[in-house]
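hey so u asked for the seq, here:
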Amino acid sequence: MKIGNLEFRDYAAKKPLMISPAGESLTASDVVSQPSLSLGSLFALSDQKKIDFVLERYKPEPDFKLGIIGVGLLTKDEVIDEIKNQTELGELAVETELGYCSELISSLVSPIPSWPEIPQPDVPDKPYWKPLKKCIRLKLKNRVLFCENTTDGVTKPFAEYRMKYVHPVFSARGFTVIALTGTNDRRVNFVPEAKKPLTVYLSGVGHGNYTTYTGHWGNHILRACTYDPAEVKGKGIHFLSCQTARTLGPDTIAKGARSYAGYDENFILQWDDGSTPAVDEFKLFAKADSTYDIMIANGSTAQQAYDATIAAFNAAIASVPGTVAASYLTLDRNRLKLHGTPGARVLPYRYVKICFPLATFEMEDSLAKSGELED
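ran it, structure tokens below
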């Protein structure tokens, strides 16, 4: 059903979107037909009326599961109970719904946001060595280190999505992809890979809190103030996890990381409610977040990647107007933060200059191991 510029699902079109001065519930159609009705503020309602309003919006929603990275899964009825009891999550649900409704009202007559165009860089086929006077330059492939939690019910679908749609983009661009998955997604495996000078980008999905990003069974991958700066120095970082952009993100920048993108509070998503086979809500969340990694893989700066990700969230929101999914897409969009150097980018290769005679026995040994020795 088209209302204003947006295409609503039938049940979403019947939800209350605003409360009139007389206390009557107004749908999106009512607001479009009489724009003056949208001038009120839902935030001016009493606390109980806010709760009642949000409960009325939740009722028509098909059954769904709400996933909170780092917490777990809740059913629709469990979320409604949280709202009624005004727990911390219940208060957040009310705030999220009211904020989204206010934004949706203005979106009804605004141009529909589109998904960002992903740049397709032209990677020249440069030689892997260059002759110099007494020196050569060898081209080395940079590495991307992914820490993907595949052993947790909430993070596993995201990890599988990322391995299918994100990792191959980096490989195609020319990066060497290192992926820590399953029981290998642990700090003991992360540290030696992260410290390698050719590792230029860290990413993945996992649980987290303000100070810590975790892997398999909660094993901490990075914890603020407790790691060697060499693990992050000069690198770009993006973790799909709860809260890590609040403290861990700035801490990595202070220790030399070039950029950090993540969420400063819990990342919350709605799983597919099955009401529209053509739209899988989970994929909207996954596609929006993955936009950042894909933009980085294709040569964009951190700021360009961040801006494109915000645009992706806006396009996802506009594709399911009036739904719970749209509310939490809006919340996650607002929680996405970027720290560090806006112009930071990563390249798939760099050159190393080697001059003769070789300066150290270690370098001679390394070259000897990398090729075939001849007399």
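The chain has two domains: 2-107, 129-350. The mean pLDDT is 90.
lmk if thats what u needed
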